[in-house]
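Folding Problem: From Residues to Backbone Shape
Fields: amino acid sequence; protein backbone structure tokens
RECORD BEGINS BELOW THIS LINE
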Amino acid sequence: MGNSSNFWTQQRPDGKWESKREGADRASKVTDTQAEAWDYSKDRARDEGGEAFLKNREGRIRERNTYGDNDPYPPKG
């Protein structure tokens, strides 16, 4: 089982985009656009102090954002 505060954005076989909590069987949200699903994943990960991952159409991680105490590059000051 993965970290349940992480959220993945990926394209579904039907062409829609989903935001899915890591380890979940069902999507948290399904949208028509990648941008909508990615924004949702980032918001949820930010709220829960996790990470948001964006997969491209080939299934590779294209972008990732870390929030909370696990952020490897927190701003200084």
About this structure: The CA atoms of residues 45 and 70 lie 12 Å apart. DSSP finds one helix and five strands in the chain.
